[in-house]
Design brief:
362 residues, alpha/beta, nine-stranded mixed sheet, two-stranded antiparallel sheet
Amino acid sequence: MSAAPAVSIVLPTFNRLEFLRAAVDSVLAQTFTDWELIIADDGSEIETLAYLATLAELPRVQVLRLPHTGNPSAVRNAALRAARGQYIAFLDSDDLWLRRKLEIQVAAQRACRVARWSYTALTRIDATGGTIRRASKRPRAMDAGTIVEQLLTLSVVVATPSVLAERSLIEEAGGFDEAQLFFEEYDLWVRLNLLSEVCAIDQPLALVRSHDQHYSADRIGACQGRLRLLDKMERLACAPRLAPVLRLERAKVAAALAAVYAASGRRADALTMLWRSRACAWRSGSWWLGAGVTASRAVAPSWLRGAVRSRQRWGLRPERAAGETHERPLDQDKAEPAQQAHERNGQHEHGGHAVQHGHEPG
């Protein structure tokens, strides 16, 4: 058996061949070459399997053919069990890396004395590869060190393809929770952060794609997943100061889930969710507001609900819920000059504003 690589790349997939090829190409194009790629296939169809068979012939690529489960955590854990590298890097089958992603991140990770894992900034792209620009000019936070509260409140974005972690740290944390069907990545990030500080690399090295095939498009499942995550973190006995944060987040998510239930016609479930969440939510103004709106929807007659939907359809709802605008398509080669601009400005080097540690350098 060959020597263990520095990085094991975990890439789960289920079909999505139109995106998978580009994801794999972004790995093969990496300037850092001491890696192995483990593709865990969740029972894809014949066309995808034929493509994966060609990859299995490459010396640094291993393809795991698994029975279909539809469980991203189980698929990633299968790849983690096969990994041999010192570090684990995650990449989803619809996302991309810039060419120097591993080179920059591995160097930054090795320079971190207090953090055993790291994440980078990202660029969002659409199904065609076009850059998605946020309407707000305010930059998102890139927090380092202990960021458990930010992870629980989703006030920091730690995208799966931006994460690099010591394999031993992931094993110590127990890997992905296979019962956590949504927000399974944030569940793991919180557990990693309870064991180790995190290093933040303020340079967009991952391209995260938004499209209509997302597993997380199930709004009810997503809300249920967040509630499970928050309940789990409360049982893990996080710092006492996080107790009110967890209560407030549970109240917000419970109100959101009740609203989704009501909007989908599950009025009894909506009212039941509001009733069950009242104990943790009675101090939350947003919960009371959401509860009032949801309860009104749940008990309103069908003709009134139809009138409200018609009013929204004819222009009285927000124009863009996501607050994003699209530009022309951007492929990996077109993204590279932006990275080179970062490098010319010295933003990829350790220290400065690009790499944030939990503490000041000694």
